[in-house]
Design a protein that fits this description.
Elements lengths: L1 E4 L7 E3 L9 E3 L5 E6 L3 E9 L6 E6 L2 E7 L3 E9 L7 E7 L11 E9 L3 E2 L6 E7 L28 H9 L1 E7 L31 H6 L14 E5 L2 H5 L6 E2 L6 E2 L11 H21 L4 E6 L7 H15 L4 E5 L16 H18 L1
Parallel strand pairs: 12-13, 12-14, 14-17, 17-18
Antiparallel strand pairs: 1-10, 2-4, 3-10, 4-9, 4-11, 5-8, 5-10, 6-7, 6-9, 15-16
Helix pairs in contact: 1-6, 4-5
């Protein structure tokens, strides 16, 4: 068996936003990881895992089939990915981070140091299509494991291989990346926190994770968009913005700052707050176009209802009028029901499968 550092495997393909550092390779986002084509009978990966509260999980596939999924505990150690296989055949192996970047745990990371093997590595070809998925808990795969009655907010119930992003990319034979955070929206979080707006963090590698460790690892560095340009950008946001209207006022305990998305006495949305959301949609679309000049942008919505469909459509319409940019569209996704719900009252595997089918058909019309 040979141990080879990640930095020395030139054939290794890295997935997901990360820094240029490969000593070790740090995984920040959902579905980030590595992919390799390797011969030999055995393959192990050396991981280093850190966290304060939320332990990362990972999944891996061999020749496209989902072989394993497990919780990772703190420390640096080796994990077997396969053994006893035909040494002469080349196997495609992909390692996926199942857990999203954790904005409440600045120490929750997976670092990949090396691979142990008895074969050789071969190049992994790029796919013809690239897709970036931007979203909230739905795109993070929350609720895709666990019984329907489960309500605990824990990493065990997240999955990167049951969600609509993975299913869409697999069906279209596309490379993909995920940029998502549970509970966050375009303008604020589900509980009215203005700091939890996805657009504020889009231009950095992973600046939503707090603390000195994230800064040391390079999470707050500007992201180099030129290195990976998507053909399609899928935005699935608005669910938490809508939910915030029914939540109490958010108060920052340190500064006293307050924020609340308001409803009128008759239950309708406050026009000023809806306008603020719509302008946030417009601004984000401008940012996305600046960073991804040739991508078609698809704003998806509907897996947990469509209360904010009209404000989203209005924001898209405003952007298209101002910018004369026809490369953005809206797509309604199938709503969850009693048959397709997962844990934590989130869309389950069936709902994600249905959403992926709709999205695949739509993207095929564009490419």
């Amino acid at each position: 068996m040979t141990e080879t550092a990640v930095k020395d495997i030139k054939e290794l393909k890295v997935h997901g936003r990360t820094t240029i550092c490969r000593e070790p390779l740090t995984l920040f986002w959902t579905a980030s990881g590595f992919e390799c084509n390797v011969s030999g009978s055995e393959l192990w990966v050396e991981v280093e895992v850190t966290y304060d509260t939320y332990e990362p999980w990972f999944s891996y596939t061999v020749n496209g089939d989902w072989i394993g999924r497990q919780m990772l505990l703190k420390g640096r150690y080796w994990i077997p990915l396969f053994r006893g296989m035909n040494p002469d055949k080349i196997k495609n192996v992909r390692f996926y981070k199942d857990l999203q970047a954790m904005s409440d745990d600045g120490s929750s990371y997976i670092h990949i140091h090396a691979l142990r093997h008895d074969g050789s590595f071969y190049p992994v070809e790029d796919k013809k299509l690239r897709i970036e998925f931007i979203g909230d808990s739905i795109t993070s795969g929350e609720g895709l494991f666990g019984a329907k009655e489960e309500e605990d907010w824990i990493p065990m119930f997240f999955s990167s291989l049951r969600d609509y992003a993975y299913l869409t990319a697999k069906e279209l034979d596309a490379d993909y990346r995920v940029f998502s955070q549970s509970g966050w929206g375009v303008y604020n979080t589900w509980d009215n926190n203005r700091k939890g707006a996805i657009p504020k963090y889009y231009k950095e590698i992973c600046s939503l994770m707090p603390g000195e460790e994230n800064e040391r690892l390079g999470g707050k560095q500007p992201h180099d968009f030129s290195k990976w340009q998507p053909d399609i950008v899928v935005i699935n946001l608005g669910t938490n913005d809508a939910a915030s209207f029914d939540q109490p006022e958010w108060v920052d305990e340190k500064t006293g700052e307050r924020h609340k998305m308001r409803k009128n006495p008759d239950g309708s949305y406050c026009e000023d707050d809806i306008a603020a959301f719509e302008h946030a949609v417009v601004d984000f679309l401008y940012t996305l176009r600046e960073c991804n000049p040739k991508a078609h942008m698809i704003w998806c919505y509907g897996m947990l209802g469509i209360p904010f469909q009209m404000p989203i459509l209005e924001g898209i319409s405003m952007y298209r009028k101002e910018s004369k940019d026809s490369g953005v569209s809206y797509l309604q996704l199938p709503n969850v029901n009693d048959m397709s719900v997962g844990s934590r009252q989130h869309p389950g595997a069936l709902c994600h499968k249905q959403a992926a089918e709709v999205l695949v058909d739509y993207i095929r019309q564009l490419v």
